[in-house]
Specification:
This protein is mainly β and 236 residues long. The protein has one helix and 18 strands. The strands form four sheets. Strands 2, 4, 5, 7, 8 and 9 form a six-stranded mixed sheet that branches.
Length: 236
């Protein structure tokens, strides 16, 4: 074969290989490939911050303000769903958006819980769950957030045992939680088990084949309090 023709053939082969490699990496301009896609995980929340006091509202009235909820964008998400819970009334509202910032008008001087979800390949991807207080006029001290139940989880089946450790976590924007009251028993409205507990856990005696109910009241130094809501578990 002519030496010049050999060189030309070699150059053509190299160019073809390079083109194939570029195509497999994905083109950020036309969206082909997955090389520039985010991992299909739950989004990271940004604002309002966790366990914080939100002072950044617009359209202020004595009772309401507009808060801009923000999270990290994810290229796998077509539509995000923001879930917002009013922790005093237990009212839950949901908002859908294609953006990663959405304005929502909410009550002032009130505690909320929020998280964000999206669907990827028929699987729901969910963010962490954050609490915050929306600041209000004239409020000097805010009630603690409802205690987060850690263990046993709601409706959990506990292997047969003689005792179970109840565990929870507490938080407060004023950082002045002083005690917890724990309610526990076999009735769906349990009686008080311990008052003025400083620890975030307590161990209780249990019997196999029994459903138990429990609730935690969080108290701060100003006398404000909040309830976790009644949770239940069964000992097998």
């Amino acid at each position: 074969m002519n030496p010049l023709k050999k060189i030309i053939n070699f150059v053509v082969i190299v160019l073809i290989c390079q083109a194939c490699n570029n195509a497999s990496d994905g083109d950020p301009e036309n969206g082909s490939g997955i090389g520039n896609q985010d991992e299909p995980n739950g989004v990271g929340l940004v604002f309002p911050a966790q366990d914080a006091l939100c002072n950044e509202g617009t359209d202020l009235t004595p009772t309401e303000s507009t808060v801009y909820f923000e999270w990290e964008s994810n290229t796998n998400a077509q539509i995000y769903t923001l879930t917002l819970e009013h922790l005093e009334t237990n009212t839950i509202t949901q908002y859908t958006t294609e953006d990663y910032v959405i304005p929502v008008t909410i009550q002032r001087a009130a505690a909320f819980r929020w998280f964000v979800e999206y669907v990827h390949d028929n699987d729901i991807k969910k963010s962490a769950i954050w609490n915050f207080y929306n600041a209000g006029p004239g409020v000097q001290n805010y009630a603690p957030f409802p205690a987060e139940i850690v263990s046993p989880a709601m409706a959990q089946s506990v292997p047969a045992t003689n005792s179970v450790t109840l565990e929870w976590s507490g938080s407060d924007v004023d950082n002045d939680i002083i005690a917890y009251d724990v309610y526990f028993g076999t009735d769906s409205s349990p009686d008080v088990l311990e008052s003025g507990l400083i620890s975030n856990q307590t161990t209780v005696p249990v019997l196999s084949g029994t459903i138990y109910y429990w609730n935690v009241i969080t108290i701060d130094s100003a006398g404000n309090s909040s309830e976790s809501g009644v949770h239940q578990f069964i000992v097998l």
